[in-house]
Amino acid sequence: HILVPWTKINLHVTHLFYMTVEPDLQGRVLMLVEDDPDMAVLQQRMLQKNGYRVIHASSGEEAVRLAAEHPELDLILMDIDLGPGMLGTDAAQAILESRDVPITFLSSHTDRATVEKTQGITSYGYILKTSGEAVILASIRMSFRLFESRMNEKEKARVVQENEQRFRSIFDQAGAGVALVDVTSGKIFRANIAFCNLLAISEPELQNRRYEEFHAEQDHSDANRKELLLSGEAADQTSERKLNTLEGERWVRETITATWPEQSNAYFIVIWQDITEQHRAQAELLDSERRYRRLFEGNPMPMWVFDRETLQFMAVNDAAIDHYGYSRDEFLAMDISQIRPDGDKERLLGILTAEENRSDLINRSGVWRHKRKDGSVIWVEVTGHKLEFRGRPAKMILALDITERLEAQKELERNLSEKDFLLQESSRRIRRNITALETVLRFKIQSVPEDSARIPLAETLQRLAGIRALYNCLLLSHVQEHENAGSYLKELSDLVVSANLHRARIQLVQRLSPIAMEPSRLLTLGVITNELMSNAIQHAFINQTEGTINVELLEQSGKVILIVKDDGRGIPENPGGGIGAGTGLSMVRMLAQNLNGSCEFKGERRNRVELEFPLHSPSLVPGIMDVVRSNRTSARATAR
């Protein structure tokens, strides 16, 4: 070997040296299929000398095996006559069935029969072994170029086929309706499923029909738009169109574009996107907006919308203008802090900041003071609703003027305070009167010498003591000493019986569950129990010397049930109002409603009364009414 620098080589003598290897061929892997060992050695050396890696196979069978084992093969030089066994052409055919690799036949035969054996086999040349090294190498390079060209064409064909399949898939499965329309006639020659579904017509029925005939209204500017598309002045044209279909009217967003395929005439691509629901929703939204605007403008209570960032008024209704005295222009030039007294502005900013961090859309920010144009201050209850108004984060406010209500409430509190004082004074007087009666009776008993005269006085004193104990039991302060309703009603029912021993011998049967209850509600329950038992004793045991009263208290499914039952003749029928129309029983019904409950009289003689009310429902009349009931009931007991 003679090594010479590449740039110093004389171009006229390069063919004398076997060192001119093309850089892009270095490292290529060839398989030489040759059954003649000597010829195989010479050819292998020649190929290796020119930069190729060579794998040798001495038979067709071995060639097939090695081709499967070496996926890195770039080219196969195949002899045709390989001696006994598989011919080179058969081996080539077997290899090509499993992989795509360039095969060039290398043979010493030139007869027609041998050459014809290669026909029908994808090969990249037929080289005579006697052609010389230069011809063989040139043929190999040509085989590579032919194979690469074929692979490129094959790849192009594959890409074209994939694109065509992709286009067909997209076209057929597109959610929007797509149709191809002839430019000249305007007739549809192809439409996808969505296009057909929009019109409720099959594709064969659409063939050769103009797509414009489905437009509910003809647009005279369509021709101009098509001219712009065909001239290239516009890429596409989009408009909203109403269609007449077999299933009624539909709205679509129509987009038209023109295309010029290389091998066919130009055509329009018409795309229909169904916007019927969107169009209907938009119409409903506009209608809803008009309705809400009328409600806003015509609402009898002051309303306005303000910007949540700038606090500027954005809209006010007529009621706000009338109530506050500002004109519409004056309102819109102000922010919401300007209708507040100076002392409330800092609180306003704090509340607004806290509300911005909350996720609820509707909130009640409580009671505020507002300042009208004439300087007067009113109390309002404010309810707000977050919304977007004219593209800005806003809030709609409804302001309820409660100034008169607050003044009335203050007047009511003053009246209740006066009544509370009077009731407390009445309660003290009743207790003093009972104490005075007891003192007089004790003095009288001591001053009467005869036992026969002292006995009725002592009985009266005993009854009076029972009445005093019953009166004290019906005071709220005493109710608060009990842990549950069962223990309180037991004490109360015992006192009711002991205070009425002069009427009859009463046997009291009690089944009272220990139910926890608020003192104010327990007092109401005690008043009802006292009234029902007193009525039973007064009416049920007339002309009887003994009787039984059952008092039951139980809880079922979150409800409290009180049952008062006697074995007497029952409550008599009132000529004016039927059974249970007296003052006492009317009070029972009123107190039952106060507990959010109901009271029913059952049994043939109406001698069983059931009161049912929810355990956790708050009383409707708190505080002062407890004192009213307790003193009223005590007064009734004292009278009896």
Can you describe this structure?
This protein has 640 residues and is of the alpha+beta class. It has four domains: 147 residues, Response regulator (Rossmann fold), CATH 3.40.50.2300; 107 residues, 2-Layer Sandwich (Beta-Lactamase); 103 residues, Beta-Lactamase, CATH 3.30.450.20; 174 residues, Heat Shock Protein 90 (2-Layer Sandwich). The protein is 44% helix and 23% strand. The chain contains 19 helices and 22 strands. The strands form five sheets. Strands 2-1-3-4-5 form a five-stranded parallel beta sheet, with helices on both faces. The C terminus is likely disordered.
Characteristics:
five-stranded antiparallel β-sheet, 4 domains, alpha+beta, Beta-Lactamase, five-stranded parallel β-sheet, elongated, disordered C terminus, 19 helices, 44% helix, Rossmann fold, 22 strands, 640 residues
